[in-house]
Fold this sequence. Notes:
Blueprint: H1 3-16, H2 23-37, H3 47-67, H4 69-85, H5 91-110, H6 114-120, H7 124-145, H8 156-168, H9 176-186, H10 191-217, H11 220-223, H12 228-255, H13 259-279
Amino acid sequence: xxxxxxxxxxxxxxxxxxxxxxxxxxxxxxxxxxxxxxxxxxxxxxxxxxxxxxxxxxxxxxxxxxxxxxxxxxxxxxxxxxxxxxxxxxxxxxxxxxxxxxxxxxxxxxxxxxxxxxxxxxxxxxxxxxxxxxxxxxxxxxxxxxxxxxxxxxxxxxxxxxxxxxxxxxxxxxxxxxxxxxxxxxxxxxxxxxxxxxxxxxxxxxxxxxxxxxxxxxxxxxxxxxxxxxxxxxxxxxxxxxxxxxxxxxxxxxxxxxxxxxxxxxxxxxxxxxxxxxxx
Length: 280
């Protein structure tokens, strides 16, 4: 792990976490492209690389918390009022409950996929194929959304399906934001509501991973040998880029089709699958 690699991956994470193009997939591509061009064998990632991936996600988590600070405060306030009054009819309270339920469902679906996801980190060609699948999901969501009426409030049914999609998207190449936003569109949510809920739903999962993982799997003595300057720099960059990405992506998704990201996923997926099959 060096400083330039960390900055590059911070930029990639900040952009791809919120765009529907798979942040985990792009981190796999970026890391393994770097190894190929440096003549380094593609093998299972070190603990430092895994920890750095977690920190990059932590940087984008901070971006979400800052950008949606008002919405988060409203949800927490509504939930607290619901606990006191036993009345959860307020939409913000409902969204809070849906996020809690969605987090549990995500863990139930994602946990059995953990070992597969870890192996895919050093199988970039397969990740490329999964990215192609994300592209087709985005295409279909645009087609489907034009056939059904839209709504501006998340309901229980749509929240359950979105949570299941988030769990499946634990596999790198299956974009978390892409699959959750697409699922929202499948279930009749308008584009902006689907995107906002997708970002809010990511908070507990990323927070859990970035807080729990280091204490479970990272040896503290080994961590002292990590390149902390590079890790901190990459984390800051991912947060700054992520904040700007949220701001402008929400403006984009409110007006324009996700098909452009579908084309991107298909093209990049094909190119990376071919590249790593031939050269890795």
